[in-house]
Amino acid sequence: MKKLNFKSFLPVLALFLLFKDSLKAQTMDEMWDTRSSGKEHPNIQWFKDAKFGLFIHWGLYAKLAGEWKGKRYYGSGEWIMNQARIPVAEYKAVAQTFNPVKFNADEWAQLASDAGIKYMVITAKHHEGFAMYNSKVSDFNIVAATPYKKDPMKALAAATTKRGIQFGFYYSQFQDWYEPNGGRNTWDFEEGKKDYEKYYKEKAVPQLKELMTNYGPLGIVWFDTPGGMTKEQTQAFVDDLRKLQPKSLFSSRVGQGLGDYKDFGDSEVPSTPIKGAWESIYTHNDSWGYIKHDMNFKTPAEIIRLLANVASKGGNLMLNVGPDGEGRIPEYSAKFLRETGKWLDKNGESIYGSTYGLVPAQPWGVSTSKPGKQYLHVVNRPENGRLLVPGFNGTVSKVYSLIGKEALEFKTEGNDVWITLPEFESGSANTVFVMEYSGKVSDYDLNVPVTVSSQFKENNVEAVFAKLKGNPKIQSLTYSHYYGDWKHTVCVTDLKDTTDEAVFNIRVTEPGDYKVALEYSCSPESARQEGRLKINDQEFLFRTLRTSEFDKKAPLPFIRHVIATTTFSKAGEYTLQITPLQNGKELFRLKAIVVEPAR
Ligand code: FHN
Known about the structure:
By secondary structure, the chain is of the alpha/beta class. It folds into three domains: 6-13 and 46-346, TIM Barrel; 355-446, Immunoglobulin-like (Sandwich), CATH 2.60.40; 459-597, Jelly Rolls (Sandwich). It contains 13 helices and 30 strands. The strands form seven sheets. An eight-stranded parallel β-sheet has the order 7-6-5-4-1-10-9-8. Strands 19, 21, 24, 26, 27 and 29 form a six-stranded mixed β-sheet that branches. Strand 5, helix 10 (196-214) and strand 6 (220-224) form a beta-alpha-beta unit. The longest helix is centred in the middle third of the chain and has 19 residues, at 196-214. It is globular. The termini are far apart. It binds ligand FHN. Ligand FHN is lined by residues 76, 78-79, 224-225, 266, 281, 288.
């Protein structure tokens, strides 16, 4: 047998250490703990209203495009130096061929403006250590070390400001693989010999000061992957920088709870609303930095729905594009962003300046709020055109389509509002209706039973709505497909004893026959255990099917296992209760109960 070599695990270990915070399962309390520093920054309002930002990862890795010495890499392209263990001396030489002559700041800023983007954050220096601006602190920068010799950030700051887009820099404050004392290059430099204080003093802080001095007012300084400093040191670092631009917002990844708004994990949307200022950050394809063989771009409809979903939870979406080594934004990023912009042009009122929706996600879609208005983002039209807004106790005065302002019929029954929708294309990305109301309304409530209706192909009763008894927890599980392309799924975990329960309250709006499936992931150890689903008093037994190991670095496959065919004889509330039939082992990791009309 081949002997295991410890060194071969180092990249994995480094990645694990780097992301260990995001690997940690979140409890619901942590998910609701929103603010970063606990204090609201006086200049936070523009950010809260902005809702849509453009993230740009651009550095020497763009030139490599996911390939090194004939080998292709997948996942996070900006990590290629680390993935391929490229020595500093060789990586440095890439700069000599980096000549992004097709870069055009006005084109980028115009694209952002056409896309309805309100702020842009670009990598001034990523973990590779290369400054994409004119730095006097280190020669490893685009002006001194490349044939391009110009400062693209100057032009971009001017082009965005001209178009009213807030401009900001991403800066990797701790990781710097080029510097002997920077964080996490362990293939060239010995970990134990690093002097982080020296690195901060001689590179990170002076470079951040350059960025905060030479590029006009910055909307945001987007820090990433903190490390190497105590809370006191981080506080001093923040205080020192804040003096230069007191109005700039610092992302929560400055560390130690000292940021001005919260960033969730990469590609993560919380499953319930979050108060305060926060942001979800997503890649457009699978990588942040350009990879020429990464063609998995989110379609315009996917972007629009993602944006509405993030806004419905009260946050901003900052969507990333990775321009290539010549300075071009990938064709599909430009095209799909422009399509998103066309939608925002007509529907922006329902997104910009909104806060989270008061109505939990429904089979038809999500909602966003403004004073006296609920915007209903309909992504699935009920087949009979009758849309239910449940658990709403405001006095509704009118309902109309956002585009065209066509008045719609509605009626109120207790806390239900039933709206008669006009015909519209069922495949459209997101059709918005406005419900105007007066009076004080109840806040978002997780206890409103989840709607199940035969008017939709399927109804998802998500894990987050579970009421738990005994061992189970609701956890956000984090895993990756390729490398660093994180995915997050909220699941009920730790259902392992016969006294444990996960109970879901649903409200069936049309009586009839339905099929009920459990969507779960099940490790080999958990497979073949018995469980019971109780729908009110009716029992359905099942034995779990194996999917795969839960491995943070591998996809977490879920299956839909049909457990029951049942008849809901009356419209109304039902409880679905899941219990293991043996003690000791976790039954599965339950993502959702999927209820489909049987037709
Ligand atoms: O390691 C980086 C990664 O390359 C990318 O920049 C993302 C963007 O949020 N931040 C780090 C991982 O969380």
